[in-house]
Design goal:
Chain lengths: 185, 124
């Protein structure tokens, strides 16, 4: 019963964010097809423009969103009934935007992802930039064109540590949530 | 040898390749669903043109770029440098005047390639 389990985690994540005092701006649970990604991105761009956020914030936000949503689409695992279950929550407080990207992953791959994120979290901005350039020039490119630059790009644009959470769903799959914080100032 | 034209979408740039002048321009957003597939016809055009011309000018004026496309931009530049002599190639990297990230990305490409590159700030 993957769907109800994932949906419960999604509902709990929204409740927790609200309890922590955040305003929920955008949220979607289910699949992220290209049309949904484009719609999501357009809505957020419009929201940020209406809020008169500085161009730099809009650009960083947009870049984080592209990487996070394409990451879900390109790397999110499918459940047994062929659904690529995922969710994205975007919340705001006075001084920060918080974005959660969640998708299914084969639990065996968690170790490698944890390691990659810890490496980014344990270095400063220049260190992250160095990892970015090393990966750009030497990274192994997947069939979908990625080389692991997505998470590194999110770390560079947010200039904050990435928070990774995971919940086992069954004996093979886990639902991971990547939390990105983008300061408003 | 035919020109190359790909119309822009919300996530992909307008691509114009002029076979007579050897100019290739990409302008707009660059975050296709699959960057390898998007660049495939561009690589083919660059390779085909090298059989007819020895001059190549590559110009980018991009707004949002996904990380997988950054890899393909570098590969495009490297392919041009493989097929054309670097004294016959020219790269132009245009960026919005206050877009530091795109400016810095251009500077990195400049370091990673041998061809002369003009970095031009554009007031949009």
């Amino acid at each position: 019963m993957i769907l109800p389990k994932c949906e419960n985690i999604y509902n709990d994540s929204k409740k927790l964010l609200k309890k922590e005092g955040f305003e929920l701006l955008f949220s979607h649970f289910g699949e992220f097809k290209t049309s949904k990604i484009n719609e999501f991105i357009s809505d957020i761009e419009e929201y940020l423009t209406t809020k008169k956020e500085p161009k730099k914030i809009i650009k960083s936000f947009f870049n984080i969103l592209i990487e996070g949503l394409q990451n879900i689409k390109n790397h999110g695992e499918f459940s047994a009934n062929d659904q690529q279950l995922a969710y994205c929550n975007i919340v705001s407080s006075d001084d920060v935007y918080v974005i959660h990207f969640a998708n299914l992953i084969i639990s065996e791959k968690l170790g490698a992802l944890n390691k990659a994120i810890n490496r980014l979290n344990n270095t400063d901005y220049d260190g992250v930039k160095k990892i970015y350039l090393d990966t750009l020039t030497n990274g192994e490119i997947s069939k979908k064109g990625g080389a692991g630059l997505g998470v590194i790009t999110m770390a560079m644009k947010s200039k904050n540590k990435i928070i990774l959470n995971n919940t086992p769903i069954n004996d093979k799959l886990s639902l991971i949530s990547i939390e990105i914080n983008l300061n408003k100032k | 040898m035919e020109n190359l034209t790909i119309e822009s979408t919300k996530s992909t740039p307008k691509v114009i390749g002029n076979a007579e002048t050897g100019n290739l321009t990409l302008s707009g957003n660059l975050f296709p669903e699959n960057s390898i597939l998007f660049f495939k016809p561009i690589y083919t055009w660059i390779s085909d043109l090298s059989k007819h011309s020895n001059v190549f000018n590559l110009e980018f004026e991009l707004n949002y770029i996904s990380s997988s496309s950054v890899i393909q931009i570098l590969k495009t530049m490297q392919l041009i440098e493989e097929l054309y002599s670097t004294d016959k190639t020219q790269f132009i990297w245009k960026y919005e005047i206050d877009d530091e990230d795109i400016q810095k990305l251009g500077e990195e490409f400049n370091k990673l390639t041998k061809s002369p590159m003009d970095l031009i700030a554009v007031d949009v």
